[in-house]
Amino acid sequence: AVGRVCALALANKLTLGLPFARYFLRLVLDEAPADLNELQAEARLEDPMGSSAEASILDTPLVDLALQDCLMMERMTSMQRPAPLAPDPKTIVTDADKSVWLHRKLKHQLVDTIAAQARAFREGLCDVTGASGLSLLSAAELQQLLGGHEIDEERLAQWRAKSSAGGVSEVLVDMFWQWLKESSPAKRAQ
């Protein structure tokens, strides 16, 4: 249903302003990120701070990060449930297999958990627009079509001037605006 609604909006030249992540749209286009570099690039676009911490795992011995004997071949989902990343999810991650762990973790997070939703979204889009139109677009182009325009510095300043955060710590609000300011215009549009 959501794919159809979005396709109808596109057909009527409307932007939704919805935060569709590029990695989701890559799945919609049947171009899922596959290797570790692609997965890391998508994670970086989604969360620059979090992905840089994960990248440091590859470059630094686990003992130096105080992670030796701490990481297992599983991932905690957003619902705080463990998801196995190997036949024996209690296997301890070592320096020798930490790239395998990171690949499986990112693939689970950015591909496996949303593959069914991406297929359903694609079917809805294709019901309205036809499949041939999608084959002409990149994920970034589809993201722009669905979400509208990037948020530049001027628009960000307008947002801040017209926003209020009643009841929220001023420190948190300042951190939020600082994060937006440091984010790319494309990331802000999400």
Automatic annotation (TrEMBL):
Keywords: Transferase, Ubl conjugation pathway. GO terms for molecular function: ubiquitin protein ligase activity. The keyword Transferase applies. InterPro entries: E3_ubiq-protein_ligase, HECT_dom, Hect_E3_ubiquitin_ligase. Pfam families: HECT (PF00632). One of its GO terms (biological process) is ubiquitin-dependent protein catabolic process. Residues 1-190 form the HECT domain. It comes from the Eukaryota. PROSITE patterns: HECT. GO terms for cellular component: cytoplasm. It catalyses: S-ubiquitinyl-[E2 ubiquitin-conjugating enzyme]-L-cysteine + [acceptor protein]-L-lysine = [E2 ubiquitin-conjugating enzyme]-L-cysteine + N(6)-ubiquitinyl-[acceptor protein]-L-lysine. Pathway: Protein modification; protein ubiquitination. It is an enzyme of class 2 (transferase). Its EC number is 2.3.2.26. This is HECT-type E3 ubiquitin transferase.
